Amino acid sequence: GAVVSQHPSWVICKSGTSVKIECRSLDFQATTMFWYRQFPKQSLMLMATSNEGSKATYEQGVEKDKFLINHASLTLSTLTVTSAHPEDSSFYICSARGVAGAVRYTQYFGPGTRLTVL
Amino acid sequence: AQSVTQLDSQVPVFEEAPVELRCNYSSSVSVYLFWYVQYPNQGLQLLLKYLSGSTLVESINGFEAEFNKSQTSFHLRKPSVHISDTAEYFCAVSRLSNFGNEKLTFGTGTRLTIIP
């Protein structure tokens, strides 16, 4: 139980294009999902907190117009990197926080998406 | 605000030897505690967690951690490690809350390398 999927697992795109990453909680409902970015050999950096049906809350220094987050349902959140540039290349990981039962109070992570911008 | 300290950035251990990965936290409020493991090019997997109750928690693959409130620690232990335990381990805390949007505060991670 408590499985989170991400799609795609990797993507290569040209500079200036937009890329959408999906995050789904497969077997539990999550009113809150989180988006992280991870640089090589470093810990995770929280980018934003996404609540179902409302606007995302971005961390300081994260451009909300560049990293668009939509949380349309209790099982799906999307991150769109708009007008991507090489410096946006990174490993993006989402997580979903369970609200009830054995998954409550706990963030479960997706497998990550490797984005490479040429 | 909370903070998490993982003092050991790298821990090399011989196969079948015991290991302890240290985690200390600082918080002015009660917290939930977590250990996550990350294998190369993968997301994080929950290893174990402490929410309440018994201070000793165990995972299905032989790891255990003990919540020590007086020492504000949540060290991870395994009595006998395997090659497959080679990974990055992250300790994390979140505030005790019924709300769903509580953030996780991560430590900087410990790279566990098992030597054959």
Can I get a quick summary?
Chain A is mainly beta and 118 residues long.
How would you describe this protein?
Chain A has 118 residues and is mainly beta. Chain A contains no helices and eleven strands. Chain A has strands at 4-7, 10-13, 19-25, 32-38, 44-51, 57-58, 67-73, 76-81, 90-97, 107-109, 113-117. In chain A, the strands form two sheets. In chain A, strands 2, 4, 5, 6, 9, 10 and 11 form a seven-stranded mixed sheet that branches. In chain A, a hairpin with a 2-residue loop joins strand 7 (67-73) and strand 8 (76-81). Chain B is mainly beta. In chain B, 0% of the residues lie in helices and 52% in strands. Chain B has strands at 3-5, 10-14, 19-21, 24-26, 31-38, 44-50, 56-58, 64-68, 73-78, 87-95, 105-106, 110-115. In chain B, strands 2, 5, 6, 10, 11 and 12 form a six-stranded mixed sheet that branches. Chain B has a four-stranded antiparallel sheet with strand order 3-9-8-7, with no helix packed on it. In chain B, strand 8 (64-68) and strand 9 (73-78) form a beta hairpin. The radius of gyration of chain B is 14 Å and the shape is globular. The interface between A and B is medium-sized, with 28 and 23 residues.
